[in-house]
């Protein structure tokens, strides 16, 4: 009942690293058609289905419009990198801090390798920057990256703010050859240590 196969990538990551838990607040960037959002809703109990567990909240954004996922707040037709989108997310979160930021965003490829690489990296830094501002202590972050020369630096930059950063290739992601995920755990705070 997941909207796409990508769901299994997040399930695999969460089974191993336990980044989603009941009561947690999640931001899902690049969420259409919504399968990661479905997983996040289930695992944070954002739909309140687990009566005895605390209820989480999921906020999902995409350039595309997509169907509602019960339990999630959806921002369709919005570019995450714009200040308008980030303002909207901010308002929706009210004063709540995020426990897990997810990004499965993929920029449109131009086919020019150098330009594509740059836009992928920029998108990742945009997510990291927002996560640093919005995360609760000990929060987690997952970003999709492509195997390119910028990844080691991104990984080092993330390590300044998270206790652990792992490069992960879920089995469900085998088909997408160069795709990897950086899983950063236990946010230390936005001031460098
Ligand atoms: N995780 C999703 C799921 O499981 O259903 C699949 C995500 S799909 C691989 C990548 C998405 O990133 C696309 O829907 C695309 O529109 C979105 N995207 C790319 N750049 C974006 C941006 N700047 N702002 C918001 N969404 C973006």
Please describe what this structure looks like.
- With 193 residues, the chain is of the alpha/beta class.
- It folds into 2 domains: 33-96, no CATH class; 98-149 and 158-193, Vaccinia Virus protein VP39 (Rossmann fold, 3-Layer(aba) Sandwich), CATH 3.40.50.150.
- The protein is 33% helix and 25% strand.
- The protein is built from 5 helices and 7 strands, in the order αβαββαβαβαββ.
- It has helices spanning 7-17, 35-44, 83-93, 113-134, 151-159; strands at 25-29, 57-61, 72-75, 98-103, 135-146, 162-168, 179-187.
- It has a 7-stranded mixed sheet with strand order 3-2-1-4-5-7-6, sandwiched between helices.
- β4 (98-103), α4 and β5 (135-146) form a beta-alpha-beta unit.
- It is globular and about 50 Å long.
- The model has no long low-confidence stretch (mean pLDDT 95).
- Bound molecules: S-adenosylmethionine (SAM).
- S-adenosylmethionine (SAM) binds at residues 3-4, 6-7, 30-36, 61-64, 79-81, 104-107.
Describe the structure using short key phrases.
193 residues; alpha/beta; 2 domains
State which percent range the strand residues make up: 15-25%
Strand order of the largest sheet: 3-2-1-4-5-7-6
What is the H level of CATH, i.e. the homologous superfamily of the largest domain?
A: Vaccinia Virus protein VP39
Rg over CA atoms, rounded to whole Å, is 16 Å
Profile the largest sheet: 7 strands, mixed
Global geometry:
globular
Q: Which molecules are bound in this entry? A: S-adenosylmethionine
Unreliably modeled segments: none
CATH topology annotation of the largest domain: Rossmann fold
**Broad structural category:** alpha/beta
